[in-house]
Amino acid sequence: MRIPILKLHDYLLISVQVDLDDQTALQFQEDVLNKIHQEGSKGVVIDLTSVDMIDSFIAKVLGDVVDMSNLMGAKVVLTGIQPAVAITLIDMGIVLDEVPTALDLEQGLERLQHELEG
Amino acid sequence: MQVQTHVDIHSEWGIVAARQAGRKLAREIGFGSVDQARVTTAISELARNIYLYANKGQIYIEEATSSGKRGIRIIATDEGPGIKDIRKVMEDGYTTSGGLGAGLPGVKRLMDEFKIDSELNEGTTISAIKWLR
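Predict the joint structure of the above. Result:
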């Protein structure tokens, strides 16, 4: 399974709408980095509105994709994390340190714009 | 009537199947969305541990009852290498797989009851319960 990555000007937009298995998550990580490289993207928004569970593996993959993209020079914002998912992550003791987040896609794009200009 | 489902874990797909079975039963028992996420996440961690360390095993998910309380019980069992130092695997951040080391201590915090039985070279059985509030 492949998660579609959309290009919008200098940005990449991704909405994760599938139940993430490990393979799909790792493939996704690689696809995002390749697409940043291909398109010369400056920013990425990963929207997690439809994701109803993030376990320690998926949390690690998401945290890693943020760090890897930063290494390449692109900023990543995670958006739309559901209340139940946020509660579960903190219960588990998983803190996505220094990962930029926003409430929704719109605010995510604003945050990217702000960070890239500022 | 007691409801029980059982998922065979022998590939990564089993992790997803166990998760989905768990969410379905948690919803049927009447858990809200936050506890559904807790139960589903706990199942995912236990199923991944089976796959990572024992290659194969079983996840049983069933309704639990005790003195008027209702809940959901998860049993994860394998015939893998067993856990050498249980105290150590319950420490936050301890990992032998390059993960976050949040798995087992995380499961313990997500659930209300947690029991781990492990015998070196025999296998591991972990049982965890979440009660309806």
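The first strand of chain B starts at residue 4 and ends at 9.
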